[in-house]
Design a protein that fits this description.
Number of strands: 3
Number of helices: 1
Low-confidence stretches: none
Order of helices and strands: EEEH
Mean pLDDT: 80
Amino acid sequence: ELNPLSAHLFVFRNRTRDKIKILYWDNNGFCLLYKRLARGRFPWPAKDQVILTCGIRELQWLLEGLDVRQLSERPVLTYSQV
């Protein structure tokens, strides 16, 4: 039900979880990125979770084969004085 012409990336995997396709709209047409693992499987959310929202860092982790559910970003530090 999401708009494929939006600025979002749509990531799909096959049943054996060794291939990923990323689809996105690029102002004048769709772009399709495809990655196939030589060994292993991509970690993926549970079957009941159909749509997963993530940032660019989590997408990079996914493409590297890291389990996004087990990783977290370091907190951003803010200081009021130096």
